[in-house]
Amino acid sequence: MARKNTQLELVIFIVAAFVIDYLPLINLPFLWSETFFHEISHGIAALLTGGSVHSISLNFNGSGLCTTSGGSHIVTSFSGYAGSVLWGLVIYSTASFLSHTKSKYIVMTIVGLLIAVLVLWARDMPTIIILLVLLAMYILPLYKALGVGVKYFIQLVGIFVMLDAVRSPLYLLDGRSLGDGAALSELTWMPEIFWIMTWFTIALGGLYWIWNSSRVR
Q1: Nearest residue to 209 (alpha-carbon basis) of 31, 89, 49
Q2: Per-residue confidence band for 146, with pLDDT thresholds at 50, 70 and 90
Q3: Which letter does DSSP use for residue 51 in this model?
Q4: What is the crossing angle of helices 7-21 and 150-167, to 10°?
Q5: What pLDDT band is residue 181 in, cutting at 50, 70 and 90?
Q6: What distance lies between CA 98 and its chain's CA centroid?
């Protein structure tokens, strides 16, 4: 079994994610990755609750939309931000326990999801372009010459997604009553702030879990 990451290594990944977030152009594929995991979480939730996915749209500015019908609207609406946390948690934590070679399977799974969305639900040119860019970003580390970096690459992606999942719900605090929080408020009569803080707490809990599990034993 591969050695578990130390908390120092986790801090390095967090710092690297923050630096990338402020690098123009370089940060875009990582932002698009978080949006992709958010929207695919909506889609998976809809499918698992008996609904269907009509389209998934990704925009160059980092926003996105998953259009669904049927299924549980509450579960589907809730799963976007919560799903991003889960994706980041699974990607980072799983890679921490795997060798460089086995870590490729995680990347291959993500590539498979990207291809599925591209074939089944991409309906506009920006979405198609973004998905192709993401495919290139995730396929590149699979080349043998770059194999040693696969593990670190997907851990960085996992942490970036996790950090974005912490702050993204807070963007809903804009007073416009738009987005998943507003949709859940209408569906449940619980105020939007309740859902925002729930997602924020889940994301912080995910980071805390990673921090504790990163101790060397």
Answers
A1: 89
A2: low
A3: -
A4: 70
A5: very high
A6: 20
